[in-house]
Amino acid sequence: MRKWLAWIVVLIVLVGFSTSMPEITLFCRSGPEGTAHRAQVEYWNKHLAQKYGFKVKIIEATRADYYTYVNNTLLAGGKTPDILESFSGFTALYAVSDMALDITKWYYDNSMFPYNRNDWLDIAMKLVSYKGRIYALPTDTNTYLLFYRKDLIKKPPETWNELYKVAKEFTKKYNKSSPTIYGLAFYGRKCESLPMFWYQIFRSYGGTWWYDRPAFDSEPAVKALKWVTKVIREGLVPPDISTYEYMEILGALQTGQVAMAVQWDAAYPTLRDKKSSPLVWDKMGVAMVPGVMTPEGIRRAQSAHDQMLVINPHSEHKREAFIFAAWATASPEGAKIYAMAGASPPRKSILSDPEVLSKFPRFKVKLPALDKWGYAEPQIPDYPEMKDILGTYLAKAWALEMDPEGALKEANQEIYEFLKSKGYYK
């Protein structure tokens, strides 16, 4: 009897080994992206794991210091996670530091990537490429939109001057009958989003990153920052605007505190959800970010960045990781699951899909905005440090600790000295 029991135990163990399946890990941050990735992983494990021979495990981390953790993980050289969601501002750094797997060969292999390569938003693939090589797949290409109360504002402002006037109209300090306390909210805390918000004003005024040296103290740059500080000084935004990031802007809109906000488009599902935003869910409209009137018409600038899936170069399951990342970002099936869960895949067919549009009509604005006006941040390996310098001085101007000319002059000089130390200038 004992022998039979022993054989049964051995048989159970052997069956367990024979039916076990490799499992890769996807590391992402919580929020709209995490929710959408979770839906993809659940679908994969239920319907596709047997076909492809591996399962996927998702690990979600908090948003605070998320990218620092991702970069430290990649630098440490560990074998897991196999896929990490990261930010396109690091593409050049990943390329020169071998922190991300070069997936160019697999991307152009039809057996590994059997999806339509022409369906991407053009800006999406630019953001994950460096010197002709591809280092990630874009999972979510975000841009700012102007969120506005359509029950109060019949026609959204199209220029920064118009935005200022409408914001003043809906600020109680200047209009006692205003239904909102403040007219506007935008990013103010020193974070990755602060320079990207300001870039849109700067570039729409005709600014460029550099001439013969950095141009962050140029006339368009000063005009852009003066617009920001004027709005802050006049009290058209909440007094603690220098602390505002994603959640603070979201809260200001949800509570009806502000009439308008420049916010990442990813906030739209939350703002249109009756349970999450009971006061405004049916009152929220979206438009392209304002621009500057020129003889040729309104010139806009739509900041764009990718949430992207990076393959860990030290993973023991690189091939499987790419297969899943390709399916999740580019397959009609995977990309639509991602979109219907509330995120925003950079696939034109998905952004124009009638079922997706019926649930997320913001894509009617987002698709043409990015197609015509989307641009990438400077693609140099040392850009994260350069951006951090700029963000420090912009934050000081936001807090009204420095005047626009002084802040940008010091920022530009410090950026120049930093880039010079890195060999960009002699």
How would you describe this structure in keywords?
alpha/beta, single chain, D-Maltodextrin-Binding Protein, domain 2, 426 residues, two-stranded antiparallel ribbon, 18 helices, disordered N terminus, 2 domains
Detailed description of the structure:
This protein is α/β, with parallel strands linked by helices and 426 residues long. The protein folds into 2 domains: 191 residues, Periplasmic binding protein-like II (D-Maltodextrin-Binding Protein, domain 2, 3-Layer(aba) Sandwich); 204 residues, D-Maltodextrin-Binding Protein, domain 2 (3-Layer(aba) Sandwich), CATH 3.40.190.10. It has 18 helices and 13 strands. The strands form 3 sheets. Strands 1, 2, 3, 6, 7, 8, 9, 12 and 13 form a 9-stranded mixed sheet that branches. A two-stranded antiparallel ribbon has the order 4-5. Helix 17 runs antiparallel to helix 18. The N and C termini lie far apart (84 Å). The relative contact order is 0.17. The N terminus is likely disordered.
Using only C-alpha atoms, the radius of gyration works out to 24 Å
Shape: globular
- Describe the largest sheet: 9 strands, mixed
Q: Could you give me the name of the CATH homologous superfamily of the largest domain?
A: Periplasmic binding protein-like II
Unreliable runs: 3-18
CATH-assigned fold name of the largest domain: D-Maltodextrin-Binding Protein, domain 2
**Proportion of residues in β-strands:** 15-25%
* Chain-averaged pLDDT: 93
In CATH, the architecture of the largest domain is 3-Layer(aba) Sandwich
Q: What structural class should be given to the helix and strand makeup?
A: alpha/beta
Q: Provide the helix percentage.
A: 40-55%
How many helical elements? 18
Q: Please give the domain count.
A: 2
**Strands, count:** 13
What distance lies between the first and last C-alpha atoms, to the nearest angstrom?
84 Å
CATH hierarchy, class of the largest domain: Alpha Beta
